[in-house]
Design a protein that fits this description.
Low-confidence stretches: 128-143, 148-155, 375-381, 573-589
Structural class: alpha+beta
Radius of gyration: 23 Å
Largest sheet: 10 strands, mixed
Number of helices: 19
């Protein structure tokens, strides 16, 4: 991405066909879709890219088995087809993940689950027909994630193997944490996993490649109107305090759970926008050694609900909760009850005794569910996307889920194309998101640990070359940020130079994910690799050099990150809500 100062100059000077408000996955998708159809596009984000819901998901690109319970078959099929397309467009970012539903004590796997998985299999096929290139039973037993099938246009795309029953031994191979419970069988099926904030940044990068201009830390304070029509937005730079207008012929509100905060009267009176009902989803992360998983597990959590336990970036990710949320939206902290709920489910299922003090991180976010106002319906009222257009011409897109971001964007831009009578079909189904590369094809740089190359390839694809070039500038930049983790200090420099990272939180929560995976280690001095200083201080030094901070500004930024970590509950055990800290400090499994 271009430097933020250059983006600000372009936003203030130019006039655009479209300005997108919101830099999460939906806004990024709209920017890419519109720019690839020939629109000139501006995108503004109040905080940091992906800092809202889009960095706080379960990291799954999936159909959503639980939506079958609500007979929301259209949503599931749409998501399954998008899942396959994402693997094709971004194979380094969206990867197949085996998931297991185990059975114990000689019982057969739940037949009702099998019925749901049969339906899942059928709906994941692009056309209801027999599959080609079927693998042999021996190949499938070896753990293949799926097969390539040839579509109508002759291109190959990933398609998962049908679900099947596996033995207890195979269950343990995928879920070593279950060994003590001696599972006897289980269902095996496949979905996909991603790094959500990196997906957003990649989509934004592709939008910029098509000419979009994107900038963060710009607060939209109102619409620019001409003859009653929206003709841009008024913004305030949250760093400098400067105010200016971004002029555009069209405005799209893609702010997710904040959608009803932009022109709320207009939306409520004209579009009859149902209330956006935030639902808090909490996740915790655990060391792999404490809960070793190779594949993911569907874990019963009482009252007919289930949660996921997933391998993610060398750790185990557990979530999610799904509870109504009525608090402030700026910082969403995991609640004591949510953390206890997740750990109770995990401990009961795996036979472990993991307590809050053993967590490596925790995070929470809110989903923009669309409420119909019917109190009898569950919190999962709708994960469908909804689009609203009002008399000013403002288009609002909200709802939806991470997996279906591309279809949400297409629906939004289709509305613009229709009302302007343009001939501009959607192209995002054929636009690669980054460029995948094998770790073995990356050049070796002195000082970079061998295990970092795979992580760089998965996070950046071919752009990992840029990280390694920076690592070669100075020896210390080739070093890990946290000992034992693959994230390099060179990534801090890259984040500041090319991804508009403006704070320590931007780097540790969204450009890398260390704030979610190594919360405690970030603030502890490391005598082995950091000269006795805490990793967060070293990150601050690198950012200060890149962004021109003086000593006073650096001290302020370090305090700001400490405050952010506390507000969002990522620092463990300190970040566990106050009521739970006594539990966290009382001991560890």
């Amino acid at each position: 991405m271009i430097e933020r100062s250059q983006a600000l100059a372009a936003l203030a000077a130019d006039e655009f066909d479209l300005v997108v408000v919101g830099g999460g996955i939906t806004g990024a998708g709209v920017a890419l879709d519109a720019a690839s159809r020939g629109y000139s596009v501006a995108l503004v984000e109040r905080a940091d890219f992906a800092s809202g819901t889009s960095s706080r998901s379960s990291k799954l690109v999936h159909g959503g088995l639980r939506y079958l319970q609500n007979f929301d078959l259209g949503l599931v099929r749409e998501a399954l087809l998008e899942r396959q397309l994402m693997v094709k467009l971004a194979p380094h970012l969206v990867r197949p993940l085996p998931l297991v539903v185990p059975a114990f004590e000689g019982a057969r796997p739940d037949r009702l689950v099998g019925v749901g998985l049969n339906l899942y299999d059928v709906m994941s096929v692009e056309k209801i027909r027999s599959r080609r290139a079927r693998r042999s039973r021996a190949e499938r037993a070896a753990g293949g994630a799926g097969t390539a099938i040839t579509g109508a246009e002759g291109s190959e795309s990933w398609s998962p193997e049908r679900h099947r029953v596996i033995s207890g031994e195979e269950v343990i191979e995928l879920l070593p944490a279950l060994a003590a419970r001696e599972p006897t069988s289980g269902y095996l099926f496949y979905d996909c996993q991603t790094d959500d904030s990196r997906l957003v940044l990649t989509v934004l990068g592709e939008a910029e490649r098509f000419g979009a201009v994107c900038a963060n830390r710009l607060d939209v304070t109102g619409l620019v109107q001409q003859d009653g029509l929206a003709r841009g937005v008024q913004v305030e730079d949250r760093e400098s305090g400067e105010r200016f207008q971004v002029r555009a012929a069209n405005v799209v509100n893609a702010t997710g759970v904040w959608a009803d905060q932009l022109r709320p009267d207009e939306l409520a009176l004209e579009a009859e926008l149902p209330s956006i009902r935030p639902s808090r989803g909490t996740h915790v992360t655990i060391r792999h050694e404490d809960l070793p998983l190779i594949g993911g597990a569907i874990v019963p959590a009482g009252s007919g609900r289930s949660i996921f336990a997933l391998p993610w970036l060398g750790h185990t990710l557990v979530g999610t909760t799904d509870n109504d949320y009525e608090g402030p939206l700026a910082h969403i902290e995991p609640s004591r009850d949510d953390i206890e709920y997740l750990l109770d489910a995990i401990n009961a299922f795996f036979g472990t005794e993991i307590r809050p003090g053993r967590l490596t991180g925790a995070f929470a976010g809110v989903r923009p569910l669309i409420s119909s106002g019917d109190p009898k319906k569950s919190v999962d009222i709708s994960r469908k996307a909804e689009i609203y257009e009002t008399s000013s011409g403002l288009i609002t897109i909200t709802g939806g889920k991470l997996t279906t971001w591309r279809r949400m964007a297409r629906m939004t831009v289709d509305r613009l194309v229709e009302r302007e009578a343009r001939d501009a079909p959607c192209r995002t189904h054929e636009i690669p998101l980054g460029q995948a590369i094998a770790a073995s094809d990356l050049p070796r740089v002195e000082g970079v640990p061998e295990e970092a190359y795979g992580a760089l390839a998965a996070r950046y694809g071919h752009a990992a070359h840029d990280v390694l070039a920076i690592a070669g500038e100075r020896g210390e930049l080739a070093q890990p940020i946290v000992a034992g983790c693959p994230d390099l200090l060179a990534e801090v420099s890259l984040a500041a130079r090319r991804e508009q990272a403006r704070s320590i939180g931007d780097v540790l929560l969204r450009r890398t994910r260390l704030g979610l995976l190594a919360a405690r280690e970030l603030t502890e001095p490391d005598g082995d690799t950091q000269g006795g200083r805490a990793p967060v201080e070293i990150v601050g030094d690198v950012l200060a050099r890149e962004l021109g901070w003086d000593a006073q500004r650096l001290a302020l930024e370090l305090e700001r990150f400490e405050r952010e970590a506390d507000q969002e509950g990522i620092a463990v055990p300190e970040g566990v809500p106050a009521e739970a800290r006594a539990v966290a400090d009382s001991g560890a499994a």
